[in-house]
Amino acid sequence: MQKKNKIIIVIPAYNEEDNILNTYNTIVEYNKKNKTNYDVIVVNDGSKDRTEEILIENKINHIKLIQNLGIGGAVQTGYKYAYENGYDIAVQYDGDGQHDVDYVKTITDPIINDEADFVIGSRFIKKDKDNFNTTFSRRMGINLISFFIKLVTKKKVYDTTSGFRAVNKDIIEFFAHDYPTEYPEPISTTQLLQKKYRLKEVPVKMKARIGGKSSIGSWKNVYYMINVIISIITVDARGRK
Amino acid sequence: MSISLRLGLVIVSLVLLIVVLMQLRKRRIPVKYSLVWMLSSLIILLIAIVPGLFVTIANYLGFVTMSNLVIAMFIFILLMISLTLTVIVSSQRKKITLLMQEVSMIKSGEK
Q1: What is the tens place of the pLDDT at every residue in A26-73?
Q2: Probe site for chain A from B93, B97, B99 (most A CB atoms < 10 A)
Q3: How far apart are CA A194 and CA A149, in angstroms?
Q4: What is the ipTM, given to two decimal places?
Q5: How far apart are CA A107 and CA A232, in angstroms?
Q6: Lowest mean pLDDT across A41-50, A129-138, A170-179, B87-96
Q7: Quick check: A97 pLDDT over 60?
């Protein structure tokens, strides 16, 4: 018998009143149906809408941040919770209904089988173009980030901005103490690869957003790209000193 | 360098020094952060008292007039001060984030 891994799903939520209950319920139903034991921690990132009320009414396990911290600070709070409560695997999961709970098993299995230390649920790993309706410019951006990560770490990462990922116990601890506040996905990926953690990217399907608005606005793309690329190079320079 | 510019610089330097000392006395700023301002004040005073030295530097660096060198030095000092402030703000931001996370966890009863 393999030892049972304690798995927690971390859901950062900022103004997700339209989606959060639905997202939570699909996980609960999945647990019932598949006899899995995924715990959930929602991090309410200082939402200004009814998110907090919904979380309290439905007795959803959550942490309410006293001020908005942004995605990085919110996700890190989830990792701190996972670290302090001794979880073996933490899964990062969007509150807006983009991610599919069916794939949690897909991204945690490589960790359970000790094939990888962290797993990214990737939209692009297969040449499955209709998989996810992402814009051309966004895909260009992701490829450019991918190029720089390869330059710095010599590893190819296809979906650099995917927020659907699973990490093992060591990385939970690492993230609890050090997690990038801004543009966390590509930066943390670079950091982990540089620390020689084993990455596995597995194909997953993602849904289009049900409600709400994506946090990445198109006019901010250039600014975003410049920031991310400089950050990746900085991670590299820091590692070499 | 004209006598009026030198006089002006002395006044600026003294006013800056007095303001910084007053802030120090009221404990509004720690000594650590006052040093850079006192140093600035000292440099300004030095320019006014020994302009000869700065004229040599100005000529050497290719400044046409002495006042241009003074302005350039001011800009440089201000740049260094704002860079220092950016560093301080960034480190405080990190600490505030940590503080908010910990307080939020305690308040939510998850700790």
Answers
A1: 999 999 999 898 999 999 999 999 999 999 999 999 999 999 999 999
A2: B97
A3: 10
A4: 0.81
A5: 24
A6: A129-138
A7: yes
* B108 lies within 8 A of chain A by CB: yes
Report CB contact under 8 Å: B100, A66.
yes
Asked whether the beta carbons of A196 and A154 are under 8 A apart, the reply is no
Instruction: Say what the pTM is.
Output: 0.81
B106 near A CB under 8 A: no
Yes or no, beta carbons of A64 and B104 under 8 Å apart? yes
pLDDT at A96: 83
**Which residue ranges make up each domain of chain A?**
7-128+161-181+193-212
A222 near A138, Cβ under 8 Å?
no
* Residue A120, strand partner residues: A165, A201
Question: At a CB cut-off of 8 Å and minimum separation 6, what does A190 contact?
Answer: A149, A152, A153, A231, A232, A235, A236
Q: CA B66 → CA A13, A172, B14, B77, distances in Å?
A: 59, 59, 20, 17
Say yes or no: B103 contacts chain A, CB-CB below 8 A. Answer: yes
Summarised one tens digit per residue, pLDDT across range A199-214 is 999 998 887 655 444 5
Whether the per-residue pLDDT at A137 is higher than 80: the answer is no
Interface of A with B in 59-98 (CB under 8 A): 62-67, 69, 73, 76-77, 80-81, 84
Euclidean distance between CA atoms B34 and B40, whole angstroms: 10
CA distance A136 to chain B (A): 34
CATH of domain A7-128+161-181+193-212: 3.90.550.10
Interface test with B, best of A61, A62, A63 (most B CBs within 10 A): A63
Task: Give pLDDT < 50 ranges for chain B.
Answer: none
